[in-house]
Amino acid sequence: MSELFDRVDALIASRSPLPPPAERRRLRQAHGLTLDEVASALKVRRATVSGWESVKKPTEPRGPEREAYARLLDKLVDLYPPDATTTAPAEDTAVPVPVPEREQEREPVTVSADPAAGAAPPAAGPATQARPAVPATASRPARGAGPQATPRRPAAKKAAPGPAATAAADPRFENGPLAVIDADADGQVLAYCPGGLILDVPAKSLPALVDWTLTEARLGQPRLSGPGKDADPLLVLTEAALERYGLPGTLTDEERIAGRLPEDHKAVKQLARADWKLTKRGLGPWARIYRPARGSERACVQLCIPSWHALDTRHWGTAAQLPPAELARLLGVYASRVMTPRGSTAVTGLELMTALHPPTRASEPGADGRRHSEHNPGSLGTDPVDCAPCEAPDGHPLLADLPRFHVRGPAEKLFEEAYDWARPMTDAECTRRHLVGIDVNMAFAAGANGLVVGLGAPTHVKAPVFDAKLPGSWLVDLSHVDLSRVKIAKDTWADLDGAMLPSPFTPKGDRPEGPAWYATPTVAYAQELGYEVRPVEAWVRHDNGRYLDGWYNRLRDAYLATMADLGVTADLPPAGFLAAMDGYKERDPELAVVVSAVKATVKGGLGKLRERPRGEGWRPGRPWRALARPTWRPDIRAAVISRTRVNLHRKIVKHAAFTGQYPVAVLSDCVVYAADGTSPLDFLPYRDGKPLPGGFKLGVNPGLVKHEGTQSVLWGEEVRERFGAPELNLARYIKDGTVSDVDNGE
């Protein structure tokens, strides 16, 4: 009988009347539900739910979807009855907006039409707390009546770990550093902010959108350093928003190669007519729209256009395909922990250096009480400096007098790069069952930590005495360093099998054959191993400092905080750490993308320090655009890579001296060992939970190691035999075992 009753109930529900489309939307918005969440629950497309709510062209649900949708609306109307909305306030009064029951424990939001008053800021609380919901039908101030955009509702139930407390405390940027701009089926434009807030966007054109952002949206981020500048607001435009503002959803091949829309595009002309300017990048995937600054007042908005490939899939994964609310959350976490993106992760990594060490600061007041701009100590200043000839990459103007096809050798060119070394396995190693790869966390960031680098121009010195505390490039012969006998502590020597170790002085691990140029950390390591060094000449930098410390700290904290959100904390024991790392990306794929982006910010930012020509009609011997930056500093990049490689080699040597185990392959920050088991714990020497001092240690902190992957020894031998390369670098493929092509070292 109960089955019959169920069928009768279903029949009645299938014909039950539904509220009008506007009321359907009101109920959904009042509960803070997105179109995507409703569509996912009902197993329909987002556009289908949007059609059910469309006032202009409504559609009606049918079949089981109608029954489920009616049930949803019936539950929501109990929570948010129609009489819960407010009436229109008088023009100069402020009225409290009713808040749903589940939000009653929070302080209600007050919406004001008084331009001087704005809206009352939310009560202070944790950075992760979403702003209280505001029913969509609540009356709002007239557009332009006040300096603040009115909150519409939470964008999603799941709030971001959100803007930093400093940003939340700054009323100028109370809505966060950025917003994802989207348009619904009715053409209503919405701004999805981090933390779950949605704003109505009244702008009907691209220039009006820029104006609204600067006058009402309250988007941006406070400066990271006292003398620095606040971050400009970032708008991320979805394809629907692009269509709404007259921009193409994708770029043509010609536009993609040029990296921008043509100057005669109607949107570019529209901005020009409104007296807005574009940087040399033009209107491309990452665009900056500005008016010249007046004093300290800046008027600049940045655009990010995912469908124009602004978010590189190598670093941002599938972020470009996320719904607006989820994309706002992801980018908001990155912005609050690193900085508001300024372009690619590489560009942002470089910009972070400058944001933490601005080139200028305000001076002390003079006799007339006025201040002026002066050099900020510890920064790279406002003007670029020439590198040393040995530090210059091929094609640099300093090398214009070299013969056209001249190939510089080690005695002419500083070549500090990451490891790419491998060797054949011994018979004993072939009897083991597995190859286990371990990977150093944030290796290049750890290499930057505490590193003293040059700040100014280099000084040339003949026959110098080596000083390990002086950053620079040194021409010295290190071919006499014998890895068969090295110091592993102050007065402790160790006898090793040097043939099974990579040289610490060359990226390919080959022993040097004569004088070569090295960065300071490499030469200092030769001394540490117990050998005398006598440089022939050097380019040293007496103006120096720990320029990258703040940069490292910011990125380290971002990485550790996000990994902790994913369940991987710094206090885990070795076995617990390995277990926590297993499948950590699946716990929250969006935060896993943030981790990837933070790592890419480290590597990309360091790479930008020696950016090469990118088209622009460049010819060898001529300057290219990047050389005009104070942050074009190949010497700093070389020093970081040198120290990172040396740090890894030191651990390899300590491990070999203690265990007799030698690496089979090393690639950048990944090391592969032959082992009897599948876990790093099967060959790392832990005693009572404590690692080998100075050796490899499992953990999430930068400089510690994680499990990169495990394959069988048979797999390794088969791969090398298949490609006919006994020294094929297995570290490149250890993660998943897939070998797509012959190893070419790239």
Please, could you describe this protein's structure?
The chain is α+β, with helices and mostly antiparallel strands and about 750 residues long. Helices cover about 30% and strands about 15% of the residues. The protein contains 22 helices and 25 strands. The strands form 7 sheets. The protein has an 8-stranded mixed sheet with strand order 3-6-5-4-7-10-9-8, with helices on both faces. The termini are far apart. The relative contact order is 0.09.
Decide which structural class fits the backbone. alpha+beta
Mean pLDDT: 86
Radius of gyration: 30 Å
Query: Runs with pLDDT <50, length 5+?
Result: 84-146, 155-168
Strand content: 15-25%
Strand order of the largest sheet: 3-6-5-4-7-10-9-8
The major beta sheet can be summarized as: 8 strands, mixed
Instruction: Specify the number of helices.
Output: 22
Helix amount? 25-40%
For the secondary structure, the number of strands is 25
What global shape is seen?
globular
Amino- and carboxy-terminal Cα gap:
71 Å
